Amino acid sequence: MFDPLSTPSPAHELAVECLTAGVRAAQPKRAVERHCDIEGSTLRIGDGSYDLDAYDSLRILGGGKAADGLAAALEGLLGERLDGGIVVTGHRTAAPDRVTVREGNHPSPGPDSVDGATALLERAEAADGQTLVLAPMTGGGSALLCAPADGLSAADIRTVTEALLDAGASVDELNAVRRVCSEIKGGGLAAAAAPATVVGVVMSDVVGDDPAVVASGPTVPVEAAPDVAATVLDRYGVDAPAVRRWLSSATPESPSVAARNHVIASGWDAVDAARAHAAAAGYQTCVLSTHLEGEAEQSGRFHAAVATDVALRDVPVEPPAVILSGGETTVSVSGDGVGGPNMEFALAAAPKLPDEAVVGAVDTDGSDGSTDAAGALVDADTVDPQVARTALDENDSYRALADAGALLFSGSTGTNVNDLRVVVVD
């Protein structure tokens, strides 16, 4: 799946194999196979059961980078019971027969995101009390589903989103702003479909796997709080005049609808599959965490420090060993270079690694930041320390790693369960 320019050692090869195993385990088809089934007329999703005979219509309505693959997997399970639907995705990787797939804009919302969200809401509003709506929601849906509140435009949403991302705002903070400015987020899709039964089928790309955070929670009623959104803008010094005017006149709202949500895939699935592959290869394994957040550069140095302890002191495990982690780091942008969190992570780790170690880090959707690279594969000799320092200061990790032949490419993977990091110590 990942295509490094070279794998000069068994440790490099194992790192790529672990990354590949992790991403494959998080594919929508595998997630549906693990957590969904039909027995008679009963559809089971996670811990929920739904009697299909109790409904006159069954539709799929959703969005996100993996929404097309998830819709195709659900269609494969439901067959002729499915009456159609629509999903909005980024780069199409699956083609369900009964569900229309539209492409939106990512990482920033645009006209296609607005058109897709509008079509989705119109289809939801056509549902009635005898309709069962399955809503596949995956990471990326916040940008791909853009339904600006009255008085705002997609450009307004894009401006404030990009400013907050560049400032290093967390996903929770972004969502606090996006919910107030949207008709579809924070339970808006479920409200549009009422009184239909709405069931969110969620693939999580967020730390903690809260369905309200994935894609900004179109099927999870959450109060839109203008004062909280304004506080976020103040915290990061974001101007965004149009959004601030909207917030000054908006009132707190919470959709009064009920919907069930089931998380069927997350970053843990990717980390656990990578761990199992390493163990099968005869390596000791240690999962640091699947909840890592914070600055990518600092996280990279921390992983290099753990690799050094493994190599020199046999802790927390004895080599040969594989250390793994998941979660979502961020980059506070001060330079004008090109890169992404996983590339910054790898570039910061490389000069600090012991000679025995190799680090691979990727975004499981195949696109780190706004680039065409999934991440990078590095060792202690990949890049000169001064070159790495300059590139990190300029947020130009892509070019530094490209020059070193260290980038990993996969194209769109068809899934999105956050970042996956593998440290191999031989």
Automatic annotation (TrEMBL):
<dbReference type="GO" id="GO:0005737">
    <property type="term" value="C:cytoplasm"/>
</dbReference>
<protein>
    <submittedName>
        <fullName>DUF4147 domain protein</fullName>
    </submittedName>
</protein>
<dbReference type="Pfam" id="PF05161">
    <property type="entry name" value="MOFRL"/>
</dbReference>
<dbReference type="Pfam" id="PF13660">
    <property type="entry name" value="DUF4147"/>
</dbReference>
<dbReference type="InterPro" id="IPR037035">
    <property type="entry name" value="GK-like_C_sf"/>
</dbReference>
<dbReference type="InterPro" id="IPR039760">
    <property type="entry name" value="MOFRL_protein"/>
</dbReference>
<dbReference type="InterPro" id="IPR007835">
    <property type="entry name" value="MOFRL"/>
</dbReference>
<dbReference type="InterPro" id="IPR025286">
    <property type="entry name" value="MOFRL_assoc_dom"/>
</dbReference>
<feature type="domain" description="MOFRL">
    <location>
        <begin position="322"/>
        <end position="419"/>
    </location>
</feature>
<dbReference type="GO" id="GO:0008887">
    <property type="term" value="F:glycerate kinase activity"/>
</dbReference>
<feature type="domain" description="MOFRL-associated">
    <location>
        <begin position="15"/>
        <end position="247"/>
    </location>
</feature>
<dbReference type="InterPro" id="IPR038614">
    <property type="entry name" value="GK_N_sf"/>
</dbReference>
